[in-house]
Structure formats: C-alpha cells, structure tokens
Amino acid sequence: MYGLVHRALQTFAQDTYGDALWRAAVAKAGLDVVEFEAMLTYSDEMFDAVLDSLSDQLSRDRALVLEDLGSYLVTHPNTNVVRRLLRFGGFSFVDFVLSLDDLQDRTKLAFPDLHLPRLEVEPHLDGAFGIWVFSEREGFGAVLQGVLRAMADDYGALVMLELRHATRYDRSFEHLTVELFETDFAAGRSFDLSMGHAAK
C-alpha cells in the first residue's frame, strides 16, 4: 500500500488526538515504524494493525475511525490540497457527487502511485444518489462517507448518508446512498478556482 495512506492515518491521529496516543497505538500494534513516509510503500497488514490498535485506543469501531479520517482529509488545514482536489469536481455538491466517477483518474494526476478504488455513481429519480465502491479491501466506503459528509458542509448542502453492503456482479461491495435534502441549507466555505487558493 502506498505510504501516503499510512501517513494520512498518522497525521489524522496526531492532529486530532495528539502524538502520545499515536505512539501508544503504534506500540500496541507492535510496529517498528512510528513515522510513515508518504513516498514509500508499506504492507496492508501494517495499516490494518495500526488502525485496529488506534480503534482500541479510542474505544471506537474502526469504520467510525475511518469515517473521521475522511472528514479530516477535507476539513483540516494540513490537508487543504485534498479539499482543493475535490472542489475541482464542480461548483455544487451535486456536481461534486457526479464527478466521483472520475475521482480515480483525477487523483492519479496529483498522486500517480496512489490507487483509489473505482467508484460508480447512480443518480436516482428522487434526487438521491447511489455510489458503488469497487474495492478488494473493506474500509474505503467509510472514508468516502466521511469525505462526503465534510464536502456537504463545505458546499452548504444538507444530506443524509447510509453505508451498507450490496451485491453487484455477483459480489458484495460497499455501497453509499446519498439523499440530498437541500443544496443551499447553509453558507458553504468560500473557494476560488481561479486564484489557486482556498479562502479560510
């Protein structure tokens, strides 16, 4: 697994809960590495071990930790590059959701070695959306749920999200339902595509 993913989990834990808790989680996981390097490659097992340990330290289900990680990637000042990458998906929350079909390709432009799962967005007649997460690994759906929740706030939209498993191509995949109640529920965060920076 690309080290950028491990590094994201590390900075999320340190920025949100402090370095001491992160180090305790790493120690409990039995890892020799405390600082992950974004450009290196680490095993999936290392990520799972430290995620499970971090979940135990926080007394939270790992899916909730991953959802919080997704929100962190959008909202924290240290990860503003992720927010900018996502906001290029469109001028409204609906545009953004529809652009998720292309997220894999857009991400490769910025991070060529980062392999995100393929997403497939299905618009529903009632204004809702279904998002399929085609991944061999469990967990990206929870991260995406956190990203969507934070991006809805970013755009000022009111949504309800539901993550479950559903069958597609005779296999079980993570599936997100996005119900959009109001596109202009609140003032979103300002964002300027032309100036090359996001207003804080």
Automatic annotation (TrEMBL):
Pfam families cross-referenced by the UniProt entry: HNOB
Domain Heme NO-binding: 2-157
Domain of life: Bacteria
GO molecular function terms listed in the Swiss-Prot or TrEMBL record: heme binding
Matching PANTHER family: GUANYLATE CYCLASE SOLUBLE SUBUNIT BETA-2, SOLUBLE GUANYLATE CYCLASE GCY-32-RELATED
Name this polypeptide is given: Heme-NO-binding protein
The species this protein was found in: Litoreibacter ponti
